[in-house]
Amino acid sequence: MPAPVIVWFRQDLRLADNPALSLAAASGAPVIPLFVLEEGGRPLGGASRWWLHHALARLAGSLAALGSPLVLRRGEPAAVLDALIAETGADTVLWNRRYEPDAVAVDSAIKAGLRERGLTVRSHNAALLFEPWEIRNKSGDPFRVFTPFWRACLGAPPPPRPLPAPVSLTSPAKPVTGDALDGWGLPPTKPDWAGGLREAWVPGEAAAREGLLDFLDGPVATYGGDRDRPGIDGTSRLSPHLRFGEIGPRQVWHAARHAADARPGAAPGVDAFLREIGWREFSVHLLHANPGLPDTPLDPRFAAFPWTDDAAAAGAWRRGRTGYPIVDAGMRQLWETGWMHNRVRMIAASFLIKDLLQPWQTGEAWFWDTLVDADAANNAAGWQWVAGCGADAAPFFRVFNPILQGEKFDPDGAYVRRFVPELAKLPDAWIHKPWQAPPAVLCAAGVTIGRDYPAPIIDHALARDRALAAFKAVKGEG
Ligand code: FAD
């Protein structure tokens, strides 16, 4: 019997298009699938812990069906791997790469250490269409502007076709023990606030594949316009599946291209959708080139930005009690379901940063804790983009008006009515500015401002002037 091969799962919780797993299966050697609950690094947020629990439960079921159960261990990955190698006599360790700076440091040290001891270690790409070192500008540097980046991606040879899931795995001669998933206590219990997450999501590889196919069968055709309408289910909702690697971007790419060939009318929607997959790719490449992205502004001028520290205002924002319905609907959607529509993420983030002058890192941390798709690259890049200090970012002086944004992108108020039910009976004309509604309209809708729904915590016009003045000071024009 050849020595076992360890496949170390991390952000690739799937069987299909998993190069590390496929290579292990093809070796014919016994395969030990491993997941390590790591100590060190940034702790996962609450919503991510909930997702991880269910993703691991499903992955464990699929691996057991193939013949080799998932082994769960907790600790420093280097020590966990050392112990497992000593126990089993494994001579090979395979994994798919990750790109967060602290994870890269951990993985590089482990790879060097194991190789020094004569083990075979191989890492693969399962998370990206292109590796960060494959897409470079003419000077050989990473791109900092999205459009030429995406053009370069589209001009490169297409990403390889996804690998099929292995049909079976050889199990190790002696069963390998591990922790019980329930013992990790990943989902919340006291209190159990995950009811909305359970209603909104089915984690796992099968649900990810189904979600992709459903999206490509229907909404993708009108994605170009609908993707900005939070009241419509017009986007794929694949983000948590992509975050945990229950589906990979190569699978998305090839399935989407196939859908465009089969249904030419859907081609513009497919292109627009793949462009967003491109933004995900761009964020990871940015993080890889700028390890400080999660907490340090890429534009160094912003290090001196005169942020205010207003715990009450930040608390109202977190709870969805700012008095601006589109912002509050977004923040409540986030709290209830662990996800927020992209358009509303931009509006809510702009409100925190520009209307309330709170540091973008405050918002990044809240999203990190509450999003099921919380991702080091996308989250930080999103916040820096809105703040105006990121790569290819929205200029700081472009301050979103939460009333106009609501009226434009949620014209019938469907989104606000769903997540701010106390305003549900207001007519469309007032749903995004209830404090301006005539008393008779408010009375007919059963709304008393200040009692049923808060008055705006800040006047947007004044807040905008304050933000622009603060920005001028940073730019040295004050
Ligand atoms: P779709 O519109 O169906 O897009 C398909 C996929 O493309 C998404 O699943 C996602 O992987 C990727 N994508 C889409 N839009 C973006 C974008 N603007 N930037 C990068 N990738 C994108 N996305 C995360 O996955 N994790 C985060 O932590 C995260 N934080 C964000 C914070 C802020 C302040 C902002 C403005 C955006 C953030 N995004 C984040 C990006 C985006 O909002 C979500 O990816 C998107 O809403 C997910 O919904 P979907 O899967 O239906 O997207």
Automatic annotation (TrEMBL):
**What range does the record give for the signal peptide?**
none
Q: Could you list the residue ranges that cross the membrane?
A: none
Query: By its UniProt entry, which InterPro entries does this protein fall under?
Result: Crypto/Photolyase_FAD-like_sf, Crypto/Photolyase_N_sf, Cryptochr/Photolyase_FAD-bd, Cryptochrome/DNA_photolyase_1, DNA_photolyase_1_CS_C, DNA_photolyase_N, Rossmann-like_a/b/a_fold
Q: Does the keyword Flavoprotein apply?
A: yes
Name the record gives this protein:
Deoxyribodipyrimidine photo-lyase
**PANTHER family linked to this entry:** CRYPTOCHROME (PTHR11455), CRYPTOCHROME CIRCADIAN CLOCK 5 ISOFORM X1 (PTHR11455:SF9)
- Which keywords accompany this UniProt record? Chromophore, FAD, Flavoprotein
Lineage, top-rank taxon, reads: Bacteria
The text of the family note is: Belongs to the DNA photolyase family.
Q: Which cofactor does it need?
A: FAD; (6R)-5,10-methylene-5,6,7,8-tetrahydrofolate
Enumerate the spans annotated as Photolyase/cryptochrome alpha/beta domain: 3-129
Q: Which organism is it from?
A: Azospirillum oleiclasticum
